[in-house]
């Protein structure tokens, strides 16, 4: 057995290598010597490392790579970056929380007479530090950590241009319609983003194997959806599943194990913002559109009289009658009625307002009636209706802060600066994220 330089590897050296093992993540080669016993992981590292190479070369020229740095998180014995070290990177760094794994790589490279310019450091995904790399690889790590969102946030912070994530995954068959119903995906975000959800499974894991968690803990195995959502919320773009679960299984596990895996390459515009920074934009858009939507008098006045004032003699036109009926229905029937409301109202914000009448109807209907009065210039009456909400015990939170805002705006029209400010402050106290009229804020 000869190494690439023609020399022989000795029995003592093999004993040393065995003492440093297991070399179970990848196979190190030199001449006709191969060090590695991947067992159940056979072919995995070679497969995804070739995808990393392809993903990098598809996005960047060799000239660009000359100026780039690359980080491999949880690099184990460092095989991945060693394999990529023929690319002309300016800086290559692998971090790994187990000193033993770093030493394992050092030993095999020394004995097989392999060299590279990679810097291997002790470290983990939870504390990467402030250094930023053009490309970040995170392979085989996410399903060994306690928090995937926090781990990926650190990846994001350490990444300038591209990330490559390889992870074990749970099947998407668990992401069902029933699950979506059960977790109630009603957040504001879903007005602006695709209706998407993911899952993670938890299991115990000790630090016994040198490829597992850093300490005994509960780890999370994500679904593909969960990984994609995490990358998307962090501002990654062009999220490209370069090996989906089926491809990965066929290429690597070949049905020998029940595992699924995924490889994702994604890019980052250096100026990209994390999704959370979009939150205020969404709130502004949502609240401004709700405020600008004024319901027709012919529809809302009878509903107001009937539901809020309790005037049972009110003559309810069909559209108003449907709303009144909707409010009396059991939850299962109300869901069916929502479709009818949508066909009667059409405008998306109008539908949102009417469908939401279901909870705290009196306050929400009064708010809409107050809004109508304000739009008609009947400011005194509007103030009276809106204050019936804002000064009511246990009033509906949303109706309260919206009333505070409308009251403030009415006082602004009436040039009552003190009252404008008071109600604006009450609005912001009630909901710090409410987009109060910025102009009014500047004026006062
Ligand atoms: C399954 S191995 C994968 C090794 C290599 N990246 C690969 O894909 O072949 C997982 C590696 O992640 C390391 N690891 C475990 N917990 C980690 C953490 N919190 N941060 C960084 N690496 C971690 C382990 O020590 C181990 O080397």
Notes on the protein architecture:
The chain has 444 residues and is α/β, with parallel strands linked by helices. It folds into two domains: 11-272, Vaccinia Virus protein VP39 (Rossmann fold); 278-443, no CATH class. Helix content is 48%, strand content 15%. It is built from 20 helices and eleven strands. The protein has helices at 11-20, 44-59, 62-65, 79-84, 99-111, 148-157, 177-182, 189-192, 224-233, 245-253, 279-292, 297-308, 318-326, 331-345, 348-356, 361-375, 379-390, 397-413, 417-430, 438-443; strands spanning 28-30, 33-35, 69-73, 91-96, 119-122, 133-139, 159-169, 200-205, 217-222, 237-243, 260-267. The strands form three sheets. A seven-stranded mixed beta sheet has the order 5-4-3-6-7-11-10. Strand 4, helix 5 (99-111) and strand 5 (119-122) form a beta-alpha-beta unit. Helix 12 packs across helix 13 and helix 16 (361-375) packs parallel to helix 18. The longest helix is centred in the C-terminal third of the chain and has 17 residues, at 397-413. It is elongated. The protein starts with 10 loop residues before the first helix and ends with a helix. The mean pLDDT is 93. Bound molecules: S-adenosylmethionine. S-adenosylmethionine is lined by residues 25, 45, 73-76, 96-98, 101, 124-126, 139-141, 144-145, 211, 213-214.
Task: Explain briefly what this protein structure is.
With 444 residues, the chain is an alpha/beta fold.
What's the topology here?
Layout: H1 11-20, E1 28-30, E2 33-35, H2 44-59, H3 62-65, E3 69-73, H4 79-84, E4 91-96, H5 99-111, E5 119-122, E6 133-139, H6 148-157, E7 159-169, H7 177-182, H8 189-192, E8 200-205, E9 217-222, H9 224-233, E10 237-243, H10 245-253, E11 260-267, H11 279-292, H12 297-308, H13 318-326, H14 331-345, H15 348-356, H16 361-375, H17 379-390, H18 397-413, H19 417-430, H20 438-443
Parallel strand pairs: 3-4, 3-6, 4-5, 6-7
Antiparallel strand pairs: 1-2, 7-11, 8-9, 10-11
Helix pairs in contact: 1-5, 12-13, 12-16, 13-14, 14-15, 16-17, 16-18, 17-18, 18-19
The structure holds S-adenosylmethionine.
